[in-house]
Amino acid sequence: MTIPFLDLKKINDPYSEAFKAAYERVLASGWFILGKEVDLFEKEFAHFCGVKHCIGVGNGLDALFLVLKAWGIGDGDEVIVPSNTYIATWLAVSHAGALPVPVEPDPNTFNINVSLVKSVITKKTRAIIPVHLYGQPVDIDPLTAVAKEYNLKILEDAAQAHGACYKGSFTGSLAHAAGFSFYPGKNLGALGDGGAITTNDDDLAQKLRQLRNYGSRKKYQNDVIGFNTRLDEMQAAFLRAKLPFLQSSNLRRQEIAAIYDLNLSSCDLILPKVPLWADPVWHLYVVRSKQREKLKLRLEKLGVETLIHYPIPPHLQKAYSQFNQHSFPIAKELADEVLSLPMGPHLTDDQVMTVIEAINQI
Ligand SMILES: *Cc1c(COP(=O)(O)O)cnc(C)c1O
């Protein structure tokens, strides 16, 4: 019996009755774009994060991209990003027409090394996008201090960190704005694509509502050149069914992480480290090994599925050939050593123990 890395069928099974009711509700309403469900989900998710506004959009990439657009960031501007993130963080900057400026991570937390940020700030720098990678919140206080000093915006990439806390505050409420993804495999996943922006900024929220909907505030009246990227009404209804259980599902992830921590402490792997101020939500449980490929293969033979997040850092991708000659050795080293163990509310204690036994056996 293989232990699956992710099992979306099992994860969504407990909600199937609620999903059916949500579907019936939307169908009966006859309203499929920007209706009651999106409106209510936005209110509920804003409340969950502890912010004034939530704006539902088509996906996580658009969430990040639209905020940069709304801030007027584009041609000739620079935006600081981690060198070891999922490529969407960089793509948001590129689509806005700005230049991504990579900063290496702290290998202990996998998150952007805040102490290196100042050294890459230029006259063109407009914003920083810290990523709460793998569900672990970024050390935001010192970053906020740097942003204040240089008058920069901070946009959280919270696509992997719904419900994570930094010193008791939820991600999505830690900076000027945040982008979330509801891609099915995320901690709060829809049954298709979805995304959202959270912010306390009234002006920004209004601009984003316009930008996601053809630049229109009033039907057939277009004030800016906008986009069509809205959270789907049906997906909003599905997300509303799952949101009340996000905390308990994150709690289960924390339990599993604690079992891994305890039982893998004496093996030859580097385990993830959690700073005192962080309450991570373990989107992924990522270990490091110098013999990553061998380990992955042997685990596979023992029926344990693992994945690599991510095997090629953005600067070494073909899409970013202008960066290929640049050196980001920490991002490269992590890409060569990281391995994500099975993680998620679909796993039983027995399955977690089987993973542990397999690793200890190897
Ligand atoms: C998933 C993800 C995104 C993009 O979200 P989509 O909804 O897939 O567009 C952005 N940043 C990070 C860190 C992600 O993991």
Compact summary:
With 362 residues, this protein is of the alpha/beta class. It has 12 helices and 14 strands.
Task: State the main characteristics.
alpha/beta, binds pyridoxal-5'-phosphate, 362 residues, three-stranded antiparallel sheet
Plain-language structure description:
- The chain is α/β, with parallel strands linked by helices.
- The protein has helices spanning 8-12, 16-29, 36-49, 60-70, 88-96, 140-150, 202-211, 233-242, 246-263, 292-301, 329-337, 349-361; strands at residues 53-57, 78-82, 99-103, 125-128, 153-157, 165-166, 169-170, 177-181, 195-199, 216-218, 221-222, 278-279, 285-288, 338-341.
- The strands form four sheets. It has a seven-stranded mixed sheet with strand order 1-9-8-5-4-2-3, sandwiched between helices. It has a three-stranded antiparallel sheet with strand order 7-6-12, with no helix packed on it.
- The longest helix is centred in the last third of the chain and has 18 residues, at 246-263.
- The two termini are 18 Å apart.
- The structure holds pyridoxal-5'-phosphate.
- Pyridoxal-5'-phosphate is lined by residues 59-61, 85-86, 88-89, 131, 157, 159-160, 181, 183, 193, 195.
End-to-end separation:
18 Å
Could you name the ranges where pLDDT drops below 50 across 5 or more consecutive residues?
none
Q: How many individual helices? A: 12
Order of helices and strands: HHHEHEHEEHEEEEEHEEHHEEHHEH
User: Mind describing the biggest β-sheet?
Assistant: 7 strands, mixed
Oligomer: single chain
Ligands (ions, cofactors included): pyridoxal-5'-phosphate
